């Protein structure tokens, strides 16, 4: 590859109390396989000179279609026993962004977020307005049954008559923040980020997290980095996490790793915010910090082998 610019990508499938004890060997293998498949999809696009934007969208679509992750097909149930999904995408070259929140029955929320960015004069659409826009743009819808998974339903049944909400977990002492996301830099040096989520089990009707909030859960800027977050959204919103990392790089001259570590391991932790993020800069450096026990994650830098991991090690 004569081109000095190297491409790189990273993805996540959620963070939280994810330990070897909490996953059977079969589940461990299924998650790793799904992460590898999504990485391969993004890698193929970037290797052929495709855009970072196309790569992150395709990766997230792959994760949304997999029932293992709390986004798209595997989304959790809210307090009313329905699914409300959020997603956002951002183009680091133009600072264009599109996001949707509280949508139901949309097969791939990230595709809808991309349509909002490309074909509306808006950044963020919600609920029925977003769904009507989706129909006008020919976005695929699915019936309620498509989004039904027994595990998510059982989680909700255990909580439905309480005021407790769960962070996508199965045991009361556990917390899993179910979000999927991808970041990439392409051969042209352009950055992009995409994030998608089903939110929290038994969350209040119409609750919105950090995922669709540009600068909180999702951000990309060619001058600095692309970031996608997963964690307790309320803390990520109050800390404007994704933009904070970009600012630390732009105004303080911190490296991607330094900025990411400072925000996740210091700033967020002090607030009580749990979770993690994935980030990539224009040079193809990758950072995947998290302050929880685990984070489904993977990365692939041009010329290197793909890496997939789940636990602290």
UniProtKB/TrEMBL annotation:
User: What residues make up the catalytic site?
Assistant: 179
List residue numbers at the site (Cleavage).
178-179
Which biological processes are named by the entry's GO terms?
A: proteolysis
Looking at the record's lineage, which domain of life comes first?
Bacteria
Q: What is this protein called?
A: Isoaspartyl peptidase
What is the species listed in this Swiss-Prot or TrEMBL entry? Rufibacter hautae
For this protein, the record's Pfam families field holds: Asparaginase_2
Family annotation (CDD domains): Asparaginase_2
Q: Which GO terms describe its molecular function?
A: hydrolase activity, acting on carbon-nitrogen (but not peptide) bonds, in linear amides; peptidase activity
Query: Which sites bind substrate?
Result: 207-210, 230-233
Keywords on record: Autocatalytic cleavage, Hydrolase, Protease
| KW rRNA processing (keyword) present | no
